[in-house]
Write a structure and sequence with these properties.
Structural class: alpha+beta
Keywords: Plasmid
InterPro entries: P-loop_NTPase (IPR027417)
Radius of gyration: 14 Å
Helix content: 25-40%
Number of domains: 1
Amino acid sequence: MKLSDERRQRIAIARPVLQDSEILLLDGVVECGSYEEPLAADGFYASLWVARPPKSSRSRTNPDFDGSGNRNGYLFLG
């Protein structure tokens, strides 16, 4: 599989962040909004949220959204 320079760079950035996780290539916006908005839309972000690992297995260096609405995020899908 041949990757573009941009995708190789994204993987290089993601590796230290995701250690021991599968690689997720970030390519284009699928849904955006505050924490609650994509969940309420019951779309792709909501399906990822439901399928996430149990809290006990998640990294302490990667905090969860707490639902406070003070973090806007974008969901990317390649």
